[in-house]
Amino acid sequence: MAVTTPTLKKGSLFRRQHIFAGSTLTPIMVYMMIFTLIPMLWGILITFFRYSPVRAGGFLGLGGGNPFVGLENYADLFSNSPNGLLFRTSLKNTLIFSLIYMPLNLLVTLPLAVFIESVHNRAKAFFRTVYFLPTVTSLVAVSLVWGVIYNPTFGLLNMGMRALGLKGYPWLTDPNTAILGIPLPMICVLITYLWSDMGYNIVIFMAGLQGIPEVYHEAAVVDGANAWQRFRFITLPLLRSTLTFVMVMTMLSSWQVFVLFFVMTNRGGPGNATRVLVLHIYETAFRHQEMGLAATVAMALFLIIMVTTLLQLRFLRKDWEY
Amino acid sequence: MSVSKSVSRRSFLRAAALSSASAVLAACSPAASPTTAPSGEEAPKAEAPAGEKITLRLWSHQNPSFVAANEQLVAKYMEANSNVEIKYENFPYNDFITNIQTSMAAKNEADVMEMFGSWVQSYAKGGTLAAVSDIVLSLEKAKQAYYAAPLDGYTWEGKLYGMPNEYNLENGAVLINKRMFADEGITSPPEWASWDDLVLDAKKLTKVVDGNMTVAGFHYINTDGLGFLFWEGILEKGAEYFASDKIHLDFMTPQAEETVQWFYDMANVDKVVDPMTFNPNSNWVGESFFQGLVGIGFIGPWIVPEGRRNYPDFKDEWDYVSAPYFGSERKFAADAGWGKVVSPNSKSIDESWKFAAFTALEQANARQWNVGTGTVPALKAVAEDPALLNEINWLGPSLKVLGQGRFVGTLQDRDYVWVNVLSTHITECLQGVRSVKETMKLMHDEANAMIDSKIKS
Question: Residue A58: its pLDDT value, please?
Fold first, then answer.
């Protein structure tokens, strides 16, 4: 008895713990199942069908007007069909946007975070708020406001240029001008996205900077290191975890920008110069009513993002702490 | 097609049960007040008895004048049919499209939807719309009641899938800024014998300051406008844009090339519009006209209520006047406009059609809808009523040409042809990205590749 009683008590505690864990986790699991897992599985399933909700099918809408096509939708991405051509254009544009945006964001946000971190506490709060405000502003509103700024006839930018005696420019609608091969409208969207998104990374970097013990900097000062050397050899290496997080998150978000391209450049214009993958998915699904093809592009995007993220995590991995 | 010919036993039994029940219940119910359609036929009767509450859901896109017009008709219908409750929901345009498609997948779309006519054929082809029962409105009677251009958009394989409220007209007339005409000493309303005359006036109206175009004399570079003018040019010059198989498109005709060359010359030789600053992506004609940036604008009369609402401070006097045409006879292709369709999943299909007919087939109500929304009537009786101009006074030039239009036809993917092919590539051509000949070849190949892909699937 003396031996079994504690076991029973322990078993009872475990049961209670299991009941507690089960009762608290089940709702969120059910929620995830219904709103995340099932749609994901459905998304994967319809990549094997020529599926459109506007065509009646059999069970779950599959079959009938929405026939099974095996891997045909995947092959379509590499074919010269209209969808294949648009997919590759969108992929190229997304790559350009993403590969430029991430370093550009880091180049702007990290120095700004270091600068804000170095000023007085009151000013620090002010700058942090100012830079973070665009992040919490609706992207639709941001797109509309920046669309007006870039307007060729009465936009703020051209008004300023004319005031300086320069000619106004069709910033968002010129298909002929490119800088280093990057279409001008794409550059305009990059600037807008940077403006609206940089506050988030500034706050993350500031938190990372605050986590670096001051003692390392003090030791470096004693050793005669200047500000640049302290930043290069102390701050930057010790920010590696934060940098990894910021790079992964920035890359992820830049692959999924939709609203700016939908509103500012009127669905990827001029021509298809700013058509990106997420916009292509939307257009294929809802404008051209080919949900199966759209899901296939979404799968391709998912794979690209997954591989990119894994590579980033692999190369930026560190095996030390401070 | 199987949709039209095969009737399952379950469908037959359901229909038989429904009609038996309707007959019995109709005998018990008080006589419904007959509503007269334009042709004099009696409007369809409800299948439910008085006292049994029928709830219908109506969906439309969110446009203030459309919403107000629908709300009035819903209230009027519920007042006349006390056993019917209509729950009306409206959505922003893009959400509306996604809502329809996603809810169709779940089979819980609204009973009645106000759908744009150019979408109807693809939904009807897919079997996701209910066909109009001959008891409600036969195709023959519909042809007598409606203009061909809007009606054909609601027809698929000889069956009618909805009732159009609107004739989506872009051709036949243009907006003019009368203040600018007066400033330049141009007669208003103008009497243009040809497009050349219009371009001559447009050149006078065009203003360029320090190399920037501040007023476009003639703005036609917009997504819808380019497509509609392109079809009109081809037809009036005596050609056809469908290939001989009536499925593929033929943009390699001299007439098609001449039309694009004409677009190019107006922008780059006559310089009546700067395609860099006035195009589908910036200074859209529907807005820039009401901002005083356009002398003559090519756009349908539906823009007028929108312009008035969005630009209440626009003080310039304007008019909507007849546009010239190529050749000896005006010919154009039009889209079917907004109208009512019914879900095949509705539990009250007959009542849904009764409501649809109430709004789109009964002359007084259809007229009320057109007046409220400022749209061109699809119903001949409404358009031919001279008193209509007392309420929509800018429609005169449009009403004159309604009989000269035809439905644009089955393009397989209307938006792909219109937006991705015509609007995108013609605009690029005007902006100097590629030559007219290269543009024609590219448009021809892309449009037909899409058609092949759709046919294959």
Answer: 86
- Select from B128, B279, B446 the Cβ nearest to the Cβ of A54: B128
Q: Is residue A246 part of a domain?
A: yes
Coil vs helix vs strand at A212: coil
> Which of A61, A82, A287 is the closest to B446 by Cβ?
A82
* B276, B414, B418, B439, best to mutate vs chain A, most A CBs in 10 Å: B276
Q: Are B295 and B217 in contact (CB under 8 A)?
A: yes
Chain B interface, mutation test: which of A80, A153, A264, A282, most B Cβ atoms within 10 Å?
A153
Q: Are B277 and A153 in contact (CB under 8 A)?
A: yes
pLDDT band at A6 (very low <50, low <70, confident <90, very high): low
Check if the beta carbon of residue B360 is closer than 8 Å to that of residue B353: no
Q: Give the range of the structural domain holding residue A242, as residue numbers without chain letter.
A: 78-315
CATH code reported for the domain at B29-169+336-398: 3.40.190.10
pLDDT at B229 over 60: yes
A56 part of a folded domain: no
* CATH number, residue A150: 1.10.3720.10
Instruction: Kindly report the pTM of this predicted structure.
Output: 0.86
Which of B420, B450, B457 lies closest to A50 in CB terms? B457
Alpha carbons within 13 angstroms on the beta-carbon side of residue B150 total: 30
CB A47 within 8 A of CB A285: no
Chain A environment of B293 (Cβ under 8 Å): 153
d(CA B73, CA B165): 13
B431 interfaces chain A, CB cutoff of 8 Å: yes
The 3-state DSSP composition of chain A as helix, strand, coil percent (nearest 5) reads 70, 5, 25
Which residues are CB-neighbours of B130 under 8 A, at least 6 positions away? B161, B341, B342, B343, B344, B346, B349, B352, B353
Measure the CA–CA gap between B314 and B318, rounded to whole angstroms.
Answer: 10
Residue B417 DSSP one-character state? I
With an 8 Å Cβ cutoff, are B282 and A176 in contact? no
Intervals of CATH 3.40.190.10 along chain B: 29-169+336-398, 173-334+408-456
Asked if residue B10 has pLDDT above 70, the reply is no
| Residue A1 scores a pLDDT above 90 | no
Superfamily per CATH, domain B173-334+408-456: Periplasmic binding protein-like II (3.40.190.10)
For B338-369, the pLDDT digits (tens) are 999 999 999 999 999 999 999 999 999 999 99
pLDDT in tens, A220-270: 999 999 999 999 999 999 999 999 999 999 999 999 999 999 999 999 999
Averaged pLDDT for residues A14-41: 91
Within-domain flag for A166: yes
- Give the ipTM: 0.86
CA–CA separation, A192 and A267 (whole Å): 16
Q: Is B220 on the interface with A (CB under 8 A)?
A: no
Residue in B277, B294, B413 to test binding to A, most A beta-carbons within 10 Å: B277
* pLDDT(B33) > 80: no
Greater confidence (A320 vs A30) lies with A30
Q: How confident is the model at residue B292 (pLDDT cuts 50, 70, 90)?
A: very high
The residue-averaged pLDDT of A272-300 equals 95
Is A216 inside a domain boundary?
yes
Closest C-alpha among A97, A91, A132 to residue A112? A132
Residue of B nearest to A49 (CA): B457
Split into its structural domains, chain A has a count of 1
- CA B263 to chain centroid, in Å, comes to 23
B450 CB neighbours in chain A (<8 A) are: 82
Confidence of residue A320 (pLDDT cuts 50, 70, 90): low
Contact B69, B368 (CB under 8 A): yes
**How many Cβ atoms from other residues are within 10 Å of residue A32's Cβ?**
12
